[in-house]
Description:
About 20% of the residues lie in helices and about 20% in strands. It is an alpha+beta fold.
Amino acid sequence: MSDCLFCRIISGEIPSAKVYEDALTYAFRDINPMMPVHVLVVPKQHLASVAAADEATDEVLAGCLRTCAKVAAQEGLTGGFRVVSNCGDDACQSVQHLHFHVLGGGKMTDRMG
Ligand code: 5GP
Ligand code: ZN
């Protein structure tokens, strides 16, 4: 997927601020942070969004959530954090490679939409 921004970030072709990496996932700082901590967790396998979950193994999907938890611990988000995955136009997904926003480091509003 050479035309996919996050595939190019995962391969190192485009630089990123890496936070964590394992065999199945990669985590890096969002270029336009919405919170003091704003990390993107992505599977190394190209998947368009949560809607394509059936194209991935349970190991890959669970690996993404495990990496979200590891990132939150590594970043010291003891007060809590939010995990968000925008899927499709209504949710304003702007990069078509599955990603989970890990947000924290301050109090968030209770509005989700
Ligand atoms: P979405 O809107 O699809 O849920 O989230 C895409 C996220 O990717 C946005 O928060 C945006 O700031 C981030 N982003 C877009 N391009 C880049 C980039 O080149 N590098 C990094 N680190 N983040 C990016
Ligand atoms: Zn991709």
